Amino acid sequence: MSLPTYSEYKDSRVSWLGRVPAHWEVKPLKHNLRLLTAKTDRRINPVALENIESWSGRFVATESEFQGEGIAFERNDILFGKLRPYLAKVLVTSAAGEAVGDFLVMRPNITFQSKFAQYSMLNQSFIEIVDGSTFGSKMPRASWDFVSSIALPTPPIAEQAIIATFLDRETAKIDALIAEQEKLIALLAEKRQATISHVVTRGLNPDVPMKDSGVAWLGKVPAHWKVLAAKRIATVFVPQRNKPEINEVGNGICWATMENVKQAFLTATSCWVSENARVNAGSRVLAAGAVIASCVGNFNVATINTVDVIINQQLQAFIPSAAINPEYLRYVVLISQPYFELIGTAATLAYVNQQGFENLPIPLPPPSEQNQILEALNCELEIFDRIADDSTYAIQLLKERRNALITAAVTGQIDVRDSAAKIGVEEKTEAI
């Protein structure tokens, strides 16, 4: 879409804004919105940070229960997430309620339109400026004193409504395209998992004689395969209970957590354990070549470490014998979520102990067939992954386009008035 610029501009005298349309004003935010601070605990329509989708400003329903007082708001007020503002959580409220957590709750004055205010605060430059002002290293927060002083381009209110309507329409189109790509990625993930499950339990030959595996969730396996407990073909490695002191300067042995087991191979980490820290904590080192898996909660992740590591308490590992290829074992672990969930203990977050790992049923073809399966499976999965990567890149470009469009519209880099008028005519025509 190619949109015109305004016919006349002026210098905004604000470095990050540059020039703005000549008939627009530039005002500190506090001249357009006032801060609300009245407390309430009425729990009518509570909104927390988790209820606001980053960068889109959409409300996301959750089942969370909130405690304590919040800040009362009315319909068309603005909630701005001041905790980690780089997350860009900005909501226009649809009804009266209560903001629970780290929010700046604001009410536009009569010359500032709520949706335009939201888009102004979703402007990437605005978010970057606010984020640069935060205090606190672990939980960075923005202050009202700073946010309220940020200059906002302020067109006449009728024009604000036109711009907001245009952005509602155009961002909805972009969001629909993003949703299509996200749906495709989800379908690819399902297809990928189904492909892994089929090949590592059925093999490559559709005509091979089958037998009952004796394991309900595995079903039938090729008749010449074995089904063995993991302890028959691997040693289970359990980390020490004491957490060692970690560092972020590359000193020592790689420290692996749940975040490090989501890829096929673990080649590096962002934290390390020095030799002194390892000795002091009594930590055991897991040599390269193991299959590391989650033992808490999320059981469909596993990786093979190509470097020596120390793993945390949320992980355990299989050290495979010569009878099984580590890559093949990793694929078996990835399809074994039904087993882990069945035997997992704890009411909230399922936990699988060492014995549970040792008793994991392993469908085991001969070594030569494992290699054939891996070659075929990796080729097929590469196709899925390439399509998923393309979709992920498309989503990135669409989000960049969305942000750029918002920035251009709310700062007057483009003139959307004629385009918005055409939208109105089209909508009336469609209604007829």
Description:
This protein folds into two domains: 9-173 and 393-431, Adenine-n6-DNA-methyltransferase TaqI, Chain A, domain 2 (Alpha-Beta Complex), CATH 3.90.220; 204-364, DNA methylase specificity domains (Adenine-n6-DNA-methyltransferase TaqI, Chain A, domain 2). It is of the alpha+beta class and 432 residues long. Helix content is 36%, strand content 20%. The strands form eight sheets. A five-stranded mixed beta sheet has the order 16-23-20-21-18. Strands 4-11-8-9 form a four-stranded antiparallel beta sheet, covered by helices on one side. Strands 5-7-10-6 form a four-stranded mixed beta sheet, with no helix packed on it.
Question: What can be said about this structure in brief?
Answer:
The protein is an alpha+beta fold and 432 residues long. 36% of the residues lie in helices and 20% in strands.
Secondary-structure blueprint of this entry?
Blueprint (H helix, E strand, L loop, with lengths): L8 E3 L7 E3 L3 E4 L4 E4 L2 E2 L5 E2 L22 E4 L4 E4 L8 E3 L4 E3 L3 E6 L5 H9 L1 H9 L11 H4 L3 E4 L2 H46 L7 E3 L7 E3 L3 E4 L4 E4 L15 E4 L8 E2 L5 E2 L1 H7 L9 E4 L7 E4 L3 E3 L3 E6 L5 H9 L2 H7 L10 H5 L2 E4 L2 H44 L6 H15 L1
Parallel strand pairs: 6-10, 17-22, 18-21
Antiparallel strand pairs: 1-2, 3-12, 4-11, 5-7, 7-10, 8-9, 8-11, 13-14, 15-24, 16-23, 17-19, 20-21, 20-23
